[in-house]
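User: ok so my PI wants both of these folded by tonight, can you help

Assistant: No problem, let's get them done. Here's the first:
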Amino acid sequence: MHPLTRIAAIMGIVVLMVVGLTSGASAVSAAPTVVGHVYVNDNTAGTNTIGAFNRFADGKLAPMDGSPFAAGGAGTGTIIGSQGSLQVTDDGRYLLAVDAGSNQISVLRIDHDGELHPVGSPVGSGGIEPISIAVHEDLVYVANEGNGTTGSNYTGFKLHDDGRLTPLSLSTVSLPATALPGDVFFSPDGKHLVGTEVGTTDPSTFLIDSFVVGHDGRLTAAPGSPFPAQGAGPFGSEFRPTNSSQLYVSNAHGGANNGTVSAFKVAHNGVLTSIGASPYPDNQTAPCWVEITHDGRYLFTVNTASSSISRYRIGTDGALTLLGSTPFKNPAGLRPFDARLSPDGDHLYVVDAGLDAVSIFAVDGGNLTELSDSPVALPAGATPFGIVVISQDD
């Protein structure tokens, strides 16, 4: 080959290599950045698992390598309705999951890459069929539904720095067999604990339990507790994140297009009094799950039977103003359940128990828009309830 021809060929190869390397670098840099993770309690029969997803800035999800992760206890393999069956600790180090099929609570360590690793063996829940967990700092309470005859209660635990969960002596509060608790949760300041008794068809069983949390972690019932609910089937509940004296409870069993959300003022001693014109109608069916924006301005309630999400503005005094309801784009058989906002508040994730999936909505103030890629399928065998959303740096 002529020297000039050979030099030109070599130069051409170098150019191609540089272009190839540049293209590869562009492809790598264009890959979406993981900003956090989403976890779902799969409630799988036999060994319970946690479905795990990587979360991206645009709200989209992709299954995490290794998902689903074994929780250690057993699920029921049947659909369970409750709020809060999966929780993350305040420091973001541990995930707590109910194992409803084995009457246990599992603790899993969250690695920096989002992978989950069980901490020791699951711990007995102190009752039968645990369905909801409340966590504040090192204090944990679990709501046990019971078997219709016995085993229904709230039971306390201490969470140690290494992730071990140990029972808190003399902490159990027994509930009647008709209670059918739906949720248990702390106020943001940790001074109050509230639980809902969904009850039966008897209005006298529609109740809200309110407690003051002592320095030792044990509970003192508020004067007059349990309080009558303002509607049938008090279910999902949440304190206003910016005001520990304002409490919201969905009333799920009012009938077709007759759902409501109650607003209460919580006194220092735990006594509940109605706010404004509470309960507030949402004109939908079976509002079950409640989530409030981190700034405390808007409330969303998931209407399971309507496959929609009602949107409210929260006034300074705690009163609610209905803004409207956003339907899921593919509602058939969806059965939407528990919901959780991302830490930045930009996206709302909803567990779909009917289709074993997670639906995703973009949040703009009090408005919701479902993403085009929604819903995202959960692992095979899931009968999901409970969801947690964390940031990558949690």
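One down. Here's the second:
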Amino acid sequence: MRIDLLLKRENFPKTFEKSFSRFLEKKLKVTSIVNWKDYSSHDRSLLVNDRLNVIYSKNINRKALRSIMSEYAYHPNLTRHFLQKIYVLLASYIYLEWFFTKSRVEISPWIGELDNLCIVPGNHSIRIIDLQASICRVVLKDGFNAQFINNEIYLREKYNFLSLPKLLNFDAKGLWYEEEQVSALPLNRISDRNIKEKALLEAHRDLVNLYGLTLERVNANNYFKSLNKSCYDLVDRLPSVYDQEEKNRIKFVLRRLMANIDANSVYRVELVQSHGDFQPANILISNSSRQLYLIDWEYTAKRSVYYDALVFSTKCRSPKGLARRVEMVLHETDISWKWCVENANAKLSKLDLIVFLIEDLMVRLLEVQIPDMINKDSGLEIWLNEVKKMDWLTYG
């Protein structure tokens, strides 16, 4: 998530100050005062480009900086591609970058190591890239759930065949981990169709191998009870920007989904270790070797074998129009999800799709467990409205 969006969602300056201070103390053994300032002219400060999602020193290696910014230089529309490429070039030009940086982070005392760091904030963590050592330290944002970091560490340790950046070191408490720095672009920022198709096939292969190792069949009724309880607990723990009326509305949608479950059913759900956020932005391809990297396993958990495939095919991370896209899957107008199962004749039932929706609601509730949240997540609201449009939900 870009800085400009984080600033709208949460008190990110305060979170960054605490998180980066902790990093300086634990990693660099320096006690510094970190202050996020708007329009600061302080010479000893980090520059914040909120649209290109980078925080860096003016003394940084410009070639390395542009490499990290390059993700935002691509757009499928040729005109937009040209304009964004120009924007990246101008925003990284030392004599013009002040025009593109609305905020700065003052560091006192300043240390030389800061000149080699490029910082890329995210949803639950902050990626601090040491350009000289080619190491990326992923630091949990202050006050956030350490489970997100622990999920990443768990996957790297247990399933080392997965196409992930190499794990170098980690904190047993889940406050940070270090991985090799990779220079790569996400699938949705690559124009070459052949490269994209090859990378997607490799990603499918990795996930299918993971599914084969972790498959278990459980009683559907017990699984639904577990999901229902977890969702209710997450709703009750939502940040204060969600009032009781809004919490009740979420519970109403959950009850509607659960009402389609036959309590006496002997149906068994196939659960596997899912990625949890399988979308083009999390499928990276190396700029040089074309190697695949599957990133952002923060939401990995045991879910339906169909979950990752349906996240990708229904584009549910951009929920507008989700009702139509899920119905296309139901009526087999869209069969792009079938890579996750061996049986090419497999057809998803209404119950399979209801399982997917409940699991996805739980992920969305996890996404908004944000300390110091100042504005509600519009994505959750759109998702709820889309589910309300799904008249086919009655199970039978």
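The CA atoms of residues 25 and 64 lie 25 Å apart. The first strand starts at residue 33 and ends at 38. Good luck tonight!
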